[in-house]
Design brief:
Helices cover about 45% and strands about 15% of the residues. With about 280 residues, it is α/β, with parallel strands linked by helices. About 5% of the residues have low confidence.
Length: about 280
Amino acid sequence: MNTHVTQDQEASYHYKLVRRAIERLDASDAPVSLEELAQEMNLSPTYLQRLFSKWAGVSPKRYQQFLALDHARFLLRAHHSTLDTAIETGLSGGGRLHDMFLRWEAMSPGTYAKGGAGLTIYTGWFDSPFGRVLGMGTDIGLCGMAFAAEAGDDATYKDMAARWPEAAFVENKDKLDAWMSAAFGGAGERKLHLIGTPFQIKVWEALLHVPSGHVTTYSDIARVVGSPKAVRAVGTAVGKNPVSWLIPCHRALHKSGELGGYHWGTPIKRAMLAYETAAREAAPR
């Protein structure tokens, strides 16, 4: 039996259950009890409680607060990260970022302009708290992480491969195992190989300074990259971030507090924000 496939299927199943719960809670104007939610999902309250606690680190009752429709506005009020301050502290690709070691280096603009010609990119599928995730990496580090729960495996792979049309893609999950494990809290170093235009990389670097459980705005990012009027261009660069989760584009919101879009599906963005908020609240003080 293929254990890897079984783990992926289980992770995808769990994500779908959580997504159904998110949609149900969002549609309600009043609190939903654990028993009521479990009954509607044809699950036992005990199983649902255990699944939520494993997935988010808190009970469904507590977690429900983080899935409220105004969660993004709450984050913007309570945990708005001031990027200017973070950058002034000297954090960089070679330093410690948000209590996790993450090192990155960028591809030269010339190589990027050639569509990845001469570059070998290794690929593999993994399980994650948000369903199946496609990992991509070079010999230097991860260059892609994409979530397939909304679009499906085939469309997700084609989307990512089209970004570097001249690269050679080689399926090799083992090559990426350690980096992908570290990306979701395992031991080891998170290493990134950023492949984009110079402007995109400036935007992605700014995102790396937003701590987990915090958010920023597109206008804040535009200001710190030196283009305060280029909010739309910043939004486009955020949307083209190829390394979702580790480069936390899900932490970028509109100044109004609206959630904004997410390339891999708004439900995943909301789930990521809720997941991080729950983890932050559950952490020892």
